[in-house]
Amino acid sequence: MKHARKLAVSLFVTTIFFNNCSGFKVVDGLGDLASSSGTVVPMPTPGPISMGVDPHPDQYPPPMGTPGATPPETLTPVTTYPVKQTELAKVPSNFNVNDWVTDDGPQGKPSYNGFDDVGAFRLICKPSHVLYDDPIVFPGQPGASHLHTFFGNTLANANSTYQSLRSSGDGTCSGGPINRSAYWYPALRIDDGDGNDLNDQVVMPDFAVVYYKMPPLQSTFMARGLRIIFGYNMNDPSASNATFNWGCLDPSGNWRGTTGHSSLKKLADDNICRAGDSLLVQIGAPTCWNGQLDSPDHRSHVAQPVNSNLGYFACPATHPYHFPGFFLAIHWTVGPEGNAEIAKLYVSSDHMSGMKMESGSTMHTDWFGAWDDDVGTEWMLHADAGFGNCSGGDLCDGRALVDPFAKTGLFGYHSLTDPANPRVVAPPVHP
């Protein structure tokens, strides 16, 4: 029950995700707001505020871009826009998609909150595995990275491509293999004080909440093959492209003390976390895109909106395409030592060869999208065009993505929100 409360709070306080679909195609039996011909989507009738409505609509400025042929709005006028790179070819799902969708969705038709100008789609993921791999920074080089914890595709590794992610592996997020995207972050570790980081144990998260917010009818679909790193930039800290914050929730899901700690050390210094709390980190990706699937630093093809000095933020002319705001909130259970454990924690990127950064100060996240195209379009239409507030894998049309652990018992779990078991694991052998 306490994990359910923590999850409910996280849906409000949390900070992936959508992979592009080339047209308004709908999974057979799933859609009611669009047809395969791409007809105009009717707006839903205003209704009551739903459970998933975000409490901070003011953080999302007026529309920053438009889909389709109309040029997106940008900070400075330009005569031409970057040509969108041809996305990768569609890889059809090699399983029965409808086996992973239930008609027991909790919300029915999407509700419209007239006081909020955004749509939202949220899903839940559990961790999958831990590797010294990074398929974006070190493709084809197993063992070349600092230690990462992966969730999403269970077979993600250094050799992963869009094609391999779409065609193989189970999924540890809502909908199972419907979302074979790979998400990874520098593993959370406990410093045992012996000076050998390779021996330090890994704390596994209970779950992560992936959260997309979209100004209705204003977001561009994210292209197949798009990959992004966001957060602290190891090579150039001044070029870090997203902020993050650490905090603790008590067993009832309430914040301990103040929020917004920029590192684990600062959180530990405040001495607010207690045994059994939920340690939480929140991080959000940039929402402006230059049309390329990647860039040499894996970051500069996306950018943050900037102040237009006209009362709202807008995408810069160099990155004119606006796509859904992608936020991630990762939850770990604090061990019996309480705040004393927080003081020992660090993420693997804090301790690199020849450097030791303030604990938790180098947090970042990698994403390599691999959604089923048609289901991705379905939730995009309901959350974006339909003003939906869709939580827990709810498609906002009376259907929802299946909890893969309830269906298969993968890794011995029975629910996406089960606590990590074991909570602490030994690291893999470094290659």
Features of the shown structure:
single chain, 431 residues, alpha+beta, 6-stranded mixed β-sheet, 5-stranded antiparallel β-sheet, globular
Can you give the mean pLDDT? 79
Strand content: 15-25%
* Major sheet size, sense and barrel closure: 6 strands, mixed
- How do the helices and strands follow one another from N- to C-terminus? HEEEEHEEEEEEHEEEEEEEHEEEEHEEHE
Summarize the SSE layout with pairings.
Blueprint: H1 2-13, E1 101-102, E2 119-125, E3 127-131, E4 148-152, H2 162-167, E5 182-186, E6 188-190, E7 201-203, E8 207-214, E9 227-231, E10 244-249, H3 264-270, E11 278-284, E12 288-289, E13 302-303, E14 306-307, E15 313-314, E16 321-322, E17 325-333, H4 339-342, E18 345-347, E19 351-352, E20 355-356, E21 364-368, H5 373-385, E22 389-390, E23 400-401, H6 404-408, E24 424-425
Parallel strand pairs: 2-22
Antiparallel strand pairs: 1-23, 2-8, 3-4, 4-5, 5-21, 6-7, 6-18, 7-24, 8-17, 9-21, 10-11, 11-17, 12-13, 12-16, 14-15, 19-20
What does this structure look like?
The model is unreliable at 9-72 (pLDDT under 50). The chain has helices at residues 2-13, 162-167, 264-270, 339-342, 373-385, 404-408; strands at 101-102, 119-125, 127-131, 148-152, 182-186, 188-190, 201-203, 207-214, 227-231, 244-249, 278-284, 288-289, 302-303, 306-307, 313-314, 321-322, 325-333, 345-347, 351-352, 355-356, 364-368, 389-390, 400-401, 424-425. With 431 residues, the protein is α+β, with helices and mostly antiparallel strands. The two termini are 40 Å apart.
